[in-house]
C-alpha cells in the first residue's frame, strides 16, 4: 500500500514489564486538541492545531498515508514540520484519521485493483470531516486548502475532483496507491489520475522525488501527464533525490527546506496566506546528529549498555523499523526510540527524558551507532 508517515514512539524503564506505544498528549504550545468528528460514516478522530485569536482562519486539511499492517494500530498523524509551517501563516490545521485508522470508527478497506475507486472511498471520509469542520465559527469556509501525502495525497486529488465548495487548491506530496497483486497497477494509477484530472476544477501542486521507494519516477510522471492531458490544472515540482527516500519529504524537518518555497508560491497564486505572521510556530531546525563510533555493530543488541530485558526488546524492535530512526538511552535504564516523522533523534531523546533522572544520549541513528562509553 502506501508509506507509513505517522509518528511512532516507544519507551521503557528497566522496571517496566514490556515496551509499549505511547500516545503523545496534545501539545499546548501548538494549541493542539483531539476531537471525534461525527460524520454519517462514523466518528473520525481528528487532531486540530489552532493559531492564536478568534478567526475565522483559513483551513488546511492534511491527509495521512497508510502504514503496513493493521490500520487501526496506526497512531494519530502529527506531521509537526508541516503543522508549524501552516500555523505560522495563520491557518487552522486539521488532521483527520480516515475510517478504520487510529481511533476513527469504521473499517478500513484495502485497495482492490481499482485505484480510482480506492481514492474516491478515501476522499469521501475527508469530505465528511471537512463538512463538520466548515461549520466551526473559527473556520473560513471560503478558504480551504487540502494537503496529503502518499495515499493521503491520492485521496486529496480525488477530493479535488468532487467539486467541494470552498476548496481553493490541493497539494499532493508523493500521492498514489500501490496495488499489490495487480500486474498493471502503474497503468491503472495513470488512468485514475486522468479521471481525477478530467473532473477537477481546482489547481493542484504535485511534489515528487526521483528516489521515491513506492512510486518510481516513470510512474508519477505518467500520472501527472494523464492528469494534465485530461484538463487538470496542475504544477509539478520534481525535486530529485531526497535523503534515503523521497517518500519521506513531507514528514521530515529537513524536507521542509525543500518544499516550503514552492508551496509558498502556490499559496500566493491561490490568494491564500503565504508569509509568516506568527513566528512562534516556525519549526526549529532539526537537531545536529553525532558522528558514527566504533562502539559496537548496530545489530549487536547484547552490546547496548544499561538496558535489561524490556529495553533490549525495545532495541531489537527498533532494528526492524525504517529510517529515519533513532534510539536513545540513559544510565538508569531509561530509553526511547522513534522512527519516521519529524526529527526522530529529538523525539527519541524526549521520550527517554520522560522517564529518566539521568542524562539521555543517542545510541543509534539510522544504520549507525553513535554512542561512546563515557571516559573514566
Structural summary, described in words:
The protein is of the alpha/beta class. It folds into 2 domains: 1-23 and 287-376, no CATH class; 31-281, Rossmann fold. It is built from 8 helices and 14 strands. The strands form 2 sheets. Strands 3-4-6-5-7-8-9-10 form an 8-stranded mixed beta sheet, sandwiched between helices. Strand 7 (139-149), helix 3 and strand 8 form a beta-alpha-beta unit. The termini are far apart. Mean pLDDT is 90; it is low at 1-22.
Topology:
Elements: E1 8-12, E2 20-21, E3 32-39, E4 42-49, E5 57-63, H1 80-87, E6 92-96, H2 115-133, E7 139-149, H3 151-160, E8 167-173, H4 185-199, E9 204-208, H5 217-229, E10 234-238, H6 253-270, H7 309-319, E11 325-330, E12 335-339, H8 344-354, E13 360-365, E14 368-369
Parallel strand pairs: 5-6, 5-7, 7-8, 8-9, 9-10
Antiparallel strand pairs: 1-2, 1-12, 3-4, 4-6, 11-12, 11-13, 13-14
Characteristic key phrases:
eight-stranded mixed β-sheet; Rossmann fold; carboxylic ester hydrolase activity; six-stranded antiparallel β-sheet; globular; 376 residues; FrsA_esterase; 8 helices; AB_hydrolase_fold; alpha/beta; hydrolase
Amino acid at each position: 500500500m502506501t508509506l507509513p508517515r505517522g509518528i511512532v514512539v516507544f519507551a521503557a524503564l528497566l522496571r517496566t514489564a514490556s515496551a509499549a506505544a505511547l500516545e503523545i498528549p496534545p501539545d499546548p504550545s501548538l494549541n493542539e486538541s483531539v476531537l471525534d468528528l461525527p460524520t454519517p460514516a462514523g466518528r473520525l478522530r481528528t487532531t486540530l492545531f489552532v493559531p492564536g485569536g478568534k478567526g475565522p482562519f483559513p483551513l488546511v486539511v492534511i491527509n495521512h498515508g497508510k502504514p503496513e499492517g493493521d490500520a487501526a494500530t496506526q497512531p494519530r498523524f502529527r506531521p509537526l514540520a508541516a503543522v508549524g509551517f501552516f500555523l505560522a501563516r495563520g491557518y487552522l490545521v486539521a488532521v483527520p484519521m480516515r475510517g478504520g485508522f487510529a481511533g476513527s470508527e469504521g473499517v478500513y478497506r484495502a485497495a482492490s485493483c481499482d485505484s480510482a475507486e480506492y481514492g474516491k472511498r478515501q476522499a469521501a471520509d475527508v469530505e465528511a470531516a471537512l463538512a463538520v469542520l466548515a461549520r466551526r465559527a473559527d473556520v473560513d469556509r471560503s478558504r480551504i486548502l487540502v494537503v496529503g501525502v502518499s495515499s493521503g495525497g491520492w485521496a486529496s486529488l480525488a477530493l479535488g475532483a468532487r467539486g467541494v465548495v470552498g476548496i481553493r487548491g490541493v497539494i499532493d506530496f508523493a500521492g498514489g496507491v500501490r496495488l499489490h497483486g495487480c500486474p498493471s497497477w502503474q497503468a491503472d494509477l495513470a488512468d485514475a489520475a486522468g479521471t481525477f484530472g478530467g473532473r477537477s476544477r481546482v489547481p493542484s501542486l504535485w511534489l515528487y522525488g526521483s528516489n521515491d521507494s513506492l512510486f518510481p519516477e516513470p510512474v508519477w510522471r505518467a500520472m501527472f501527464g494523464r492528469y494534465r492531458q485530461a484538463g487538470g490544472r496542475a504544477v509539478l515540482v520534481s525535486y530529485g533525490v531526497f535523503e534515503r527516500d523521497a517518500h519521506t519529504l513531507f514528514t521530515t524537518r529537513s524536507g521542509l527546506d525543500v518544499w516550503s518555497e514552492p508551496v509558498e508560491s502556490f499559496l500566493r497564486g491561490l490568494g491564500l496566506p503565504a508569509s509568516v505572521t506568527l513566528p512562534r510556530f516556525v519549526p526549529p531546525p532539526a537537531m545536529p546528529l553525532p558522528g558514527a563510533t566504533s562502539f559496537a555493530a548496530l545489530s549487536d543488541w547484547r552490546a547496548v549498555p544499561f538496558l535489561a530485558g524490556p529495553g533490549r526488546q525495545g532495541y531489537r524492535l527498533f532494528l526492524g523499523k525504517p529510517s529515519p530512526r533513532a534510539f536513545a538511552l540513559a544510565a538508569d535504564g531509561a530509553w526511547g526510540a522513534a522512527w519516521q516523522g519529524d526529527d526522530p533523534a529529538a523525539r527519541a531523546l524526549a521520550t527517554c527524558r520522560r522517564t529518566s533522572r539521568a542524562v539521555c544520549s543517542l545510541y543509534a541513528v539510522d544504520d549507525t551507532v553513535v554512542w561512546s562509553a563515557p571516559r573514566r
